[in-house]
């Protein structure tokens, strides 16, 4: 299995499909899940300080014994740590828990109004020091990006948002594409809430795939880096078994009409 890659605006190469490890109450399963994912060919792991499992990710990396350069590691600064100096301290703690000298991507987890500009300045410092190979944001829509780009010295390499046909934001995708910011989508499987949607079931049957596989493939075909979460071995393998079919343009257009604002996380527009 060869996973496609994207090249970020600073030249860093990032796998387009990876594993999200947001797993509250399942942290004991995270190390095993990451090991299974790496075994299945995954080379992108997305964690965050707030997930409380950076140490488990580190243990899985050690167990896998893969060259450091072969695995792309993302982590994030949490809201309560935002601010210029506190973000740098939080980054140091994340590096320590991950057992790494650098991360491949460091992100602002949410656009906290009072601190987000100073937090971005801290990320720029971390990037200039070579301790993060790329920096970016999460849960930023147009207004947040407009504000940031007015003052940023470095354009974010990535914007990670909730992304599924049911939370489809083509205007955010177009905004990021126009500015060479790579969109990354979390919760592509909508935590299973839509797996029995009759429209999705019918389409998946046409391709001989599961509804989860169809959702992952839809996201990839939008050009979005995609990070489905699972701690189950079979599901992890299934989520990566999406490169032997292509959704037709007609079916992509149909899935784009499924939007109903189903979310598993906050609406970023509440962070104005």
TrEMBL record:
Q: Name one Pfam family in it.
A: Aldo_ket_red
Question: NADP among the record's keywords?
Answer: yes
* Keyword set includes Ribonucleoprotein: no
Q: Which residue intervals define the domain NADP-dependent oxidoreductase in the entry?
A: 24-257
Tell me the superkingdom of the source.
Bacteria
Please provide the record's keywords in A-Z order: NADP, Oxidoreductase
Q: Which InterPro entries match?
A: AKR, Aldo/ket_reductase_CS, NAD(P)_OxRdtase_dom_sf, NADP_OxRdtase_dom
Query: Which family is this sequence assigned to?
Result: Belongs to the aldo/keto reductase family.
Protein name (Swiss-Prot/TrEMBL): Diketogulonate reductase-like aldo/keto reductase
* Species annotation: Spirosoma utsteinense
């Amino acid at each position: 299995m060869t996973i496609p890659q994207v090249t970020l605006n600073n030249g860093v190469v990032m796998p387009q499909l990876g594993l999200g490890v947001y797993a509250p109450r399942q942290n004991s399963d995270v190390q095993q899940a990451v090991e299974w994912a790496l075994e299945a060919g995954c080379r992108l792991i997305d964690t965050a300080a707030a997930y409380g499992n950076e140490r488990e990710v580190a243990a899985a990396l050690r167990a896998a014994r893969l060259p450091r350069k072969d695995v792309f590691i993302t982590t994030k600064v949490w809201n309560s740590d935002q601010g210029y100096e506190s973000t740098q301290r939080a980054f140091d703690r994340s590096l320590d828990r991950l057992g790494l000298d650098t991360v491949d991507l460091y992100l602002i987890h949410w656009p906290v109004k009072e601190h987000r500009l100073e937090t971005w300045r801290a990320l720029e410092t971390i990037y200039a020091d070579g301790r993060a190979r790329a920096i970016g944001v999460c849960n930023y829509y147009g207004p947040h990006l407009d504000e940031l780009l007015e003052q940023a010295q470095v354009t974010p390499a990535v914007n990670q948002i909730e992304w599924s046909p049911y939370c489809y934001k083509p205007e955010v995708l177009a905004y990021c594409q126009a500015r060479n910011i790579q969109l990354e989508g979390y919760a592509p499987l909508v935590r299973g809430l839509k797996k029995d949607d009759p429209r999705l079931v019918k389409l998946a049957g046409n391709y001989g795939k599961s509804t989860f596989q169809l959702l992952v493939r839809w996201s990839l075909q939008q050009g979005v880096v995609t990070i489905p979460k699972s701690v189950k071995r079979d599901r992890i393998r299934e989520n990566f078994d999406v490169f032997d079919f292509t959704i037709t343009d007609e079916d992509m257009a149909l899935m784009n009409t499924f939007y109903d604002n189903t979310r598993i996380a906050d609406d970023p527009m509440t962070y104005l």
